[in-house]
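S.,

Sequence below, as promised.
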Amino acid sequence: MELDIDSLKYPISTFQQPEHLDKLQIEAWIRSIGEFPQKLSHEVKGLSEKDLEKQYRPHGWTIKQVVNHCADSHMNSFIRFKLALTEDVPTIKPYYEDRWAELPDSKNFPVESSLQLLKGLHERWVHLLSNLSDEELERQFKHPETNELISLKTNIGIYAWHGEHHLAHVKNAKLR
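The prediction came back faster than expected:
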């Protein structure tokens, strides 16, 4: 039986921008962002060090790297929101997430601090997102790799998806 690498890499598919984006969808995404740290903590609770080294796909990240990546990625996203709210269409700084995942604090460090970081970060992030005006939700940043302008309301969806995407990775890795 041949492995479908794309379905292992994107177990919930890729982010799909809805044609019509309304307040209810944005609120659902914000709830998802708010629930993410607890869901992730639940998935890794009680896992042994050996379990945390399981990969969700061949040559993929370990559970430990996924958890630590989520902290890195979500910190970056929070900063991007703040930049877009305080600057006129800022160009954000991308980062090499694959290289970050190989650093000692991602590869060889317990997940507890990243889980704590995500809990506090998401509490603050949800408060920020829940208090954005319609005008603020339309603010944008520019991604230099694609020159794409990304609105904050779209980025809320991207990060709601990102959390679910990596939760699926952790669940898949636990089954391997």
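Residues 54 and 174 are 7 Å apart (CA to CA).

Coffee later?
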